[in-house]
Here is the input.
Amino acid sequence: MSEQGQKIFKWIVWIIIGILACIAVYRLAEPIIAPERYEKHRPISRAEWMQELLECFGDEKILAETENGELTVTGKYAAVSSMNAIGTRRLSYLTDEELNDEMKTDLAVKYGIIRKKQLDKEITREDADQILKNTMKVYGSPKYYPEYFEVEAKTDVIDADQWDISAYDPENQVMVAAIMGNIPEQGEVLMYTDEYGIAHAKHVDQISEAENGKYAVQVSDVADITELFDSISFSGAANFGSIAGNEKKIDAAEKTRKDPFITTVYAAEEEESTKMSISKWIEDKTALKKDKKTEDTEKCDIEFEVEIKGIDKNGTEKEEINTFLSLTSGGIKMTKKLTYDSNNELTMEESIEGEDGIKIGKGSPDEKDGMEEIGYIKDEEGVKVNIKITQFEICSSGYYQLQNPLDQKNYIEVTAGAEKVELETTANFSAEDKYKIGTVKVPIASTGGIVCVDVNFYFVVGADGELSVTYEIEDPYAGVNVSVADGMKPLKVPSKVNSEVKAKIELNAGFIGEAAIMVFNWDLADPSADVRIYASAESVPLKPEYRLKEPYLGFECTELKVQVPVVKLSVSNGESLLADMLKEMKLEGSIELIKKDDESNSLLKHLRWHAELETDGTIRTEQMSDSQENEDVCTHIELKPKEELESEGIGDKIQGELEDKINSEVDKKIDETGEAIIEKIGKWMEEHLEDKCG
Here is the structure.
């Protein structure tokens, strides 16, 4: 190498040493000069990591597995502990092998919980949040959720799915059908699956001949589930592919709209007896479902829009609810538009649209679609809300010994997740109330429709004045596992939250999602998640160094403080088999997952807005950072002239405060710039050295 080359090489070496020294010094000082960035990128300890796993899975046993808690977490440690948290029962569905730590690590990489290149590295706080989200997605995803259904049955049943059911009167419970096989006798139990994949069990009360070789069958609900089962064991995902009716076809949908009761018919090749055991009925139906099962269970996009009006044009007290419900799954979109007034008059327009754009409509509803009785809203008060839930999914599993709520094997689990939940609402309201705005009924496909989910959505608003709320939660996930052996374990995952609020006074608004797990007509479990936003507003006092601009004399600005999301999980409303189990176990039926005013909970976001009333009556808002004050963003005020400040004796004080503030902002910008430069250099050096030197 030439002398000049040697000099250049030495300079390069010294530059590299200088850069590395800068990086080292910065990293030592980072907790002080950039605490937020440091917290995000610092290595997480084993004790912290296992506490995070505990908060997600709610299992106290996780902490007992922590060893050497002061050590930092490596990717391999995070992978193994994540798989352990998922649990042996769930892992057995992913693989039949007895797993050691190395195999658990491989599974964690295979299912996207962690990246292979992370295994030998330290895990940062940011990495840990993502690994937790990935773990919960695997735990609750329909794709990886086990599918099985087993029962201890007590009686034989008639397979009415082989009948040609031409009419049904739901009020009097009379069906008209061409019966395949032997004619059922009074007291026997028949089972059938409707066009939405939901199974029903009925007693035969009376049967008589009708026209054209058909029979009129008077039926009634089976009074007690113990008439049919001693125990029930199931697991699977709710399949939203049936929301538009049988086969998800427009022609089937058209038939469904004309007749509210069209069953899924499986005609027998010969007129043979249709009597069989419940177990055989289930086996046949689940086998049929599996033959038609697509690779992924259908999820659902849900959109609600509700408008509640208070007073008509003549000033007469009259409440009207206009509801729009749209469900989209598997290329089929089902839409319901309802108007429900104070006279209990309900009008409904219903349509189904296929991938080809063809629409089929229906009016004059057969029932009130689960909407509750309502009272009056007075004094021109009203509310309007829009809720969008993207890629909604529900999974459930359980075992229940019906004669013994304290059987050690008894457990029930329900999980619900989505990619995104968005809520937008405006209201002028004086008291909190809850309104049911829609019901979705879907089967657990693996059970032949015997187990299904009634998904009920409620809108809740409480306010004392005018408000407008918008918030968005990414990756929302909640669930619960209750077992006699292990007690109650709430399931949740950290979520990203964005929020916008406009208001004049205190408010809270949100929605409740309730997933009732049904076995025929009996509630097995009925958990619900109550998600709220809380905001309070207070007047902003005018500091002595400022004055209002002339157009805003007499005006007052407001500071809005927001907490979102506040989440409460109700395990049961007290009317299910799960409620009986909780009562026997002496456990509370609700858990506050994210509490209001909990400063220690990182999932609870504290947000601030400056709100100012414009001369045209509109409200302008601007979100403030932690370091900003109202005067930094307010457009209604201005600094007093220097002469006025000096005459009031506060000029020097104000000058000093301004200089300190300016200097602070300058230092902040210098730190941010230096941080960005060092970060880019450090990242380049790490990548370069790893690539060239290993």
Remarks:
- The first helix runs from residue 3 to 33.
- The mean pLDDT is 77.
- The CA atoms of residues 193 and 199 lie 4 Å apart.
- The two ends are 25 Å apart (CA to CA).
